[in-house]
Structure formats: C-alpha cells, structure tokens
Write a structure and sequence with these properties.
The protein has 282 residues and is α/β, with parallel strands linked by helices. The chain contains ten helices and nine strands. A six-stranded parallel beta sheet has the order 3-2-1-4-5-6, with helices on both faces. A three-stranded mixed beta sheet has the order 7-8-9, with helices on one face. Helix 9 packs across helix 10 (256-278). It is elongated and about 70 Å long.
Length: 282
C-alpha cells in the first residue's frame, strides 16, 4: 500500500518508522512544520513528503482530535477516492461519527484506531520504530464497516508489533478509555500538586514514578480528549472520589478495621483482574 501519515509527532513519527522497518509499504509523510517532514525524509522514516495529487490507499491522521477533523474536512475532496481513512486519537464516540460522515461525503471509508502506546515526551525527536511492540491496539469500526477494512487494519498493526488487538464500537471504546487511560491522567496531574513534590528526591521509588509519569501530558491535547468524553470521564472521576472518601473517613475516624477492609477489597479486585488477564480460574 501507499500509506500517508499526517502529523509526524511521537505517534505519527513512530508509525512511519515502524512501517518502514517492519513492512514493505510506501510511506508518505505530511507535517505542519515542513522541516520535520524533511528530517523524517532524511532519516528514511518516510519515502517522500506529501504533495497534492499523491494517491494513498490508507491515510493515518496522527493529530489532536479537533485538528484531525479539520484536516479531513479540508483535504478529503483531494484524496484518492475510496481510500481508507483512520486516525489514532484517544477519543472515538461522536468524533468517529463525524469523521465517518466527512469521509463518506467524499467517497472515502473510515475506521478509527487507538494504539495504547506512548512516552512521557512527545515530538518527532522522541519517536522510534519499536514503540508499538506488544502494545494493545483498539480498532473501533461501525456496524456497517467492511470486514476487509477491519482485517486490513488488523494486518497492519500486527506487522508493526501489536500485542492484543481489541475490536469494539466507538461508544464502548470511550467508556473503557475513560477508566483505563483518561482517569489515570487526571489522577497523575492532581497527584503532583502536593507541596511536597519539590522535596521528593531521595524519598521516592517506583510507586511515585508510576503515579506521576503521565503528569507531563500535553495540556491542549488532553483537554480536547477529556472534554469530548466528559460524561464517561465524570462518571469514573466521581466513582473514584466516592471511594477515596471512604479511605479518608477511615483515617479521620481512626478506624483501622475499616481501613483493613478497604485495602483487602482493593487487593481482591486486583488479584481477580490479574487472574483474568492470565486466563486463570478464580
């Protein structure tokens, strides 16, 4: 295939490098800052820089959600008819429905994907071909999406190293991502606001690093993601706040028995989660 990757940041740049390293597809790159595309070309991450008239078979948009929608709106009419459009945003839901409408109005097909991969710092300079090795990939088709398009995307992400591939609806994607990803980013951002942060050096270990790693998220992109999924995220955040209140009450009341019960409940739930991941009986 001829694959156009739009946006050569961490994810887009890594996609280009992975496709070039692990497949025989031709990679065309496009970036708002042309110097980045020139660097990608000199690195061998892409075969050429996109020019109007190029006819990609697959377009992977790797921009923020609003920018992805705007790019497709502005360029859909100029793309090869019947090309498959996808994007790697961490939101689907109504966003996916709007992308599908834009695609179909211009004779294109659309299915969203979401690679569960990333690093603390973004940008092309931090991209690398191995980013997607053993990463979970979510494919979010519609009821009327062609099986052949789903299989095409499965095949591509498998080639670049995907681990588990989950196929789900755009709506179910957003419900789960609110819990497994977006909530964690909110918690990490709030966690580092303690006045003790400046004094943590020498006192912290793996748990602190795990809890704070994603606090370096891009505020513009993640605000876009949070706001487009605010109902699902609010449900998860309110659920967490209610649970935290139980721990707070136990501490405030000096109720060790309640604290033991709360910790034991969390342990049992996580152990069950681990057994399910490993396919072990409960």
């Amino acid at each position: 295939m001829k694959i156009l990757v739009v946006g050569l940041g961490l994810i887009g740049g890594s996609l280009c490098k992975a496709i070039k390293k692990y497949t025989d597809h031709t990679v065309i790159g496009l970036n708002r800052t042309e110097s980045t595309a020139v660097t990608a070309l000199s690195d061998g991450a892409i075969d050429k820089i996109y020019e109007e008239g190029d006819s990609p078979d697959l377009v992977i948009i790797s921009l923020f959600p609003e920018a992805s929608e705007n790019w497709l709106r502005d360029h859909a009419a100029k793309l090869n008819k019947n090309a498959l459009i996808t994007e790697v945003c961490g939101i689907k839901g109504q966003f996916s429905h709007r992308m599908k409408k834009l695609a179909e109005e211009n004779g294109l097909r659309y299915i969203g994907i979401h690679p569960m991969a990333g690093k603390e710092f973004g940008g092309y300079k931090n991209s690398f071909a191995e980013l997607f090795q053993k990463a979970n990939f979510i494919i979010a088709p519609f009821a009327d999406s062609a099986d052949s398009d789903i299989e095409l995307l499965k095949g591509l992400v498998t080639e670049i190293g995907a681990g588990k591939i989950v196929v789900t609806s755009p709506e179910d994607h957003d419900k789960m991502i609110a819990y497994t990803s977006q909530l964690a980013h909110v918690v990490s951002s709030a966690y580092v606001k303690s006045p003790e942060l400046a004094l943590e050096c020498g006192f912290s270990g793996g748990s602190f690093q795990d809890m704070t790693r994603i606090a370096t998220m891009n505020e513009n992109m993640w605000t876009d993601l949070f706001m487009q999924n605010r109902e699902n995220l609010l449900f998860e955040l309110d659920t967490l706040i209610d649970s935290l209140k139980e721990y707070s009450d136990a501490l405030r009341n000096g109720d060790a028995e309640a604290m033991v019960s709360l910790i034991a409940e969390g342990r049992r739930l996580k152990e069950e989660n681990l057994r399910n991941r490993l396919g072990q009986p409960n």
